[in-house]
Design brief:
With about 350 residues, the chain is an alpha/beta fold. It is about 25% helix and about 20% strand. The protein is built from eight helices and 13 strands. Strand 12 and strand 13 form a beta hairpin. It is found in: Cytoplasm; Nucleus.
Length: about 350
């Protein structure tokens, strides 16, 4: 059945967190609330697109802020040699300095518990042009001025919905169609609801965004397709209210909080990370209760070649009991010549 199919993809280790076993169910909508500058949300979207190209799945990319040709050219290249990535560390190696910690349990910072679902990608390398040319990629880009129609205050939403619907019909992705080869369409929409999507008033802009998400989710429910969108919620004055409403419409929702320009950037607890990842809504399709991960305290960091999500652990030097235990001594009297006595002395 269509409801039990899952669309793979690492999405930087997020999918195994929000759904046990990993993958997005076909017909689901994944929401990424962008960070302050949208840098890390764009990287997560690139992972989603890269997995589609690597697995030879059709891809539809839509954007109004950035040319879709630029988004396609920025797709990272897949890492074919994963021996160094999957190579386990030598746990039998003895510690020469901290020998007393040798037999202690090693903390697994991976939120997936070492589970691998999808491929690894190198952010320093771009995908080859030949691979892009052979891939089934459909692009939608609109830089026209916003106009009003019968459905939306900004007709750009209507144009994108119409384009998505035509792509689903032409590719026979509907659940009522019986194509010779069944495929799952990946739909990636970048920076939906940004300033370029705004209408004359913020109320109209919010109304258009919510209406589009309702229509878009309805199309996904009756199609062999999955959707991942990034929304800059900080563009709205009542960002908390808008975020709650779009999270309610989506099936999975995560929010990225970047440390750039905030006090957390200089906090020693977060010195090795670039931001927090908040699980706003867990996937609850085809299940009685949503998946409950072992830890919700997630952080992310951007390395030279990859984007990593880890579980936040309190370092030893920042623990609640940082003061070493010392033996209490009996205070001396001013004129006393007695030696120091410990409490255990008689």
């Amino acid at each position: 059945m269509k409801d039990f199919l899952a669309c793979g993809g690492r999405c930087t280790s997020v999918l195994p967190i929000v759904r046990k076993g990993g993958g997005l169910p076909v017909g689901s909508l994944f929401l990424i609330e962008e960070d302050e500058y949208g840098t890390y949300a764009k990287i997560m979207l690139q992972y989603f697109m890269a997995e589609g190209v690597t697995t030879a799945q059709p891809l539809l990319i839509g954007s109004k802020d950035v040319k879709t040709s630029q988004l396609v050219s920025d797709i990272p290249a897949v890492i074919t040699d994963t021996t160094s990535i999957n190579q386990p560390s030598n746990s039998d190696e003895q510690m020469k300095i901290a020998w007393r910690y040798q037999n202690m349990k090693v903390i697994d910072t991976s939120p997936t518990g070492g589970q691998v679902f999808g491929h690894f990608y190198d952010l320093t390398k771009k995908i080859e042009k030949e691979v892009i040319e052979n891939a089934d990629i459909t692009q939608w880009y609109d830089d026209s001025c916003p106009e009003k129609n019968n459905s939306f205050n900004n007709a750009t939403y209507s144009n994108l919905l119409k384009y998505i619907q035509e792509t689903l019909e032409n590719g026979q992705y509907s659940i009522s169609e019986t194509p010779t080869k069944r495929q799952v369409l990946r739909i990636a929409i970048h920076c939906l609801g940004s300033r370029l999507w705004c209408s004359d008033s913020e109320d109209d802009s919010c109304q258009d965004l919510l209406k589009f998400l309702y229509y878009f989710r309805a199309l996904l429910r009756y199609s062999y397709a999955v959707g991942v969108i990034t929304v800059p919620t900080q563009c709205f004055d009542n960002s908390n209210v808008i975020a709650q409403r779009i999270e309610h419409i989506s099936d999975v929702a995560v929010r990225l909080e970047s440390f750039a320009g905030s006090q957390k950037e200089t906090n020693p607890l977060f010195k090795d990370y670039h931001g927090l990842l908040h699980l706003r809504k867990m996937l609850a399709l085809n299940t009685i209760a949503p998946h409950n991960p072992e830890s919700r305290d997630l952080v992310f960091k951007l390395r030279r070649k990859k984007f990593v999500i880890e579980v936040l652990h309190l370092p030893p030097e920042l623990s609640d009991t940082t003061q070493r235990e010392q033996d209490e001594t009996i205070p001396q009297f001013g004129c006393s010549s007695l030696p120091d006595k410990n409490l255990l002395d008689f």
